[in-house]
Amino acid sequence: MFKLIAELEPNFAKAYIGLGNTLDDQGKSTEAIAQYKKAISLDPKNAYAYYNLAVTLGRQQQLEDAIVALKKARELFQIQRNSKMLERVDRLFQKINTRQIN
After folding, report:
1. Could you tell me how many helices (H) and strands (E) the chain has, helices first?
2. What is the pLDDT of residues 29-86, one digit of tens each?
3. How far from 55 is each of 5, 62, 65, 83, CA to CA, in Å?
4. Quick one: the chain helix, strand, coil %, rounded to 5?
5. Is the pTM of this model over 0.90?
6. Interatomic CA distance for residues 54 and 46, integer angstroms
């Protein structure tokens, strides 16, 4: 479904986030990462794209890149005053720092 939306609305960043989530769920991390990056290129203020990118990068043990994405997600969630997601960001930072990503 997200692939179709992305084809019909190629500038709709949320479609690429959804597609990235679907690919990540299927174990296609490399393709998911590409979709999150596409979403970021279309909407650089989308905190969820950065957060999802960080999660997937962390699972792939690309920890430095995950931290960069997570810092950007935190910055954007702070601007949005999204306390729920800030808590999730902090938990992910903790996992990355202790290398407990799965």
Report:
1. 6, 0
2. 999 999 999 999 999 999 999 999 999 999 999 999 999 999 999 999 999 999 999 9
3. 23, 10, 10, 18
4. 80, 0, 20
5. no
6. 13
Dist CA 90 CA 74 (whole Å): 8
Q: Which domains does the chain have, with CATH numbers?
A: 2-97 (1.25.40.10)
Confidence of residue 4 (pLDDT cuts 50, 70, 90): low
Contacts 24+ apart (CB under 8 A), 87-90: 88/51, 89/51
**Cβ-based neighbours of 57, under 8 Å, separated by 6 or more:** 33, 63, 65, 66, 69
